[in-house]
Amino acid sequence: DVKVTQSSRYLVKRTGEKVFLECVQDMDHENMFWYRQDPGLGLRLIYFSYDVKMKEKGDIPEGYSVSREKKERFSLILESASTNQTSMYLCASSTPWGQDRYSNQPQHFGDGTRLSIL
Amino acid sequence: QQPVQSPQAVILREGEDAVINCSSSKALYSVHWYRQKHGEAPVFLMILLKGGEQKGHEKISASFNEKKQQSSLYLTASQLSYSGTYFCGTEEGAQKLVFGQGTRLTINP
Known about the structure:
The structure holds two protein chains of two kinds.
Chain A: E1 4-6, E2 10-13, E3 19-25, E4 31-38, E5 42-51, E6 54-57, E7 64-70, E8 73-78, E9 87-94, E10 108-109, E11 113-117
Chain B: E1 4-6, E2 9-13, E3 18-23, E4 30-36, E5 43-49, E6 55-57, E7 60-65, E8 70-75, E9 84-91, E10 97-99, E11 103-108
Parallel strand pairs in B: 2-11
Antiparallel strand pairs in B: 1-3, 3-8, 4-5, 4-9, 6-7, 7-8, 9-10, 9-11
């Protein structure tokens, strides 16, 4: 089974701090994703990476950056945490989709990190 | 743009049926369905591909209507274990999904 591990289940930080959320997957997946989950808004994509050192902005990248130095690890960075970044953060990974749509692959999620910014 | 799920929430008694819809304003090529139990990771259920394909998982099945730009998830004879929040994800460019806001399903004994 695919295992996606997020470093913390719960995290409390202060406004203005630099915050690192870590995610590790054990299935050699090329694609990795960071989502934010808020009530009534579903899962919104922050950033994703399709290879080491490659990244692409998602729908809500403002205030965040990412790092992918190794294939198995994808980090989300809050450069200067603010209270409106209090949320549940979910990491996911997948194998790449093929050239045609008929081979697109499911995403495998971690348990999430509930981050509170005070 | 996020697909729209309906209903937002539904409460059933064990054994009853439910339908969850996922509608997109864009042309659909594929739809992913996931279920998330409280405090747990979302879990993949199935992928529906263009062509009206219908798939099944336990007593859960889904359909894909290309003309309506909609997918529907059918839960038959619901069990307590089906409780959770269901998300649909639609293809948004290569390798990415955009998810709906979720439908919370509560099954009571």
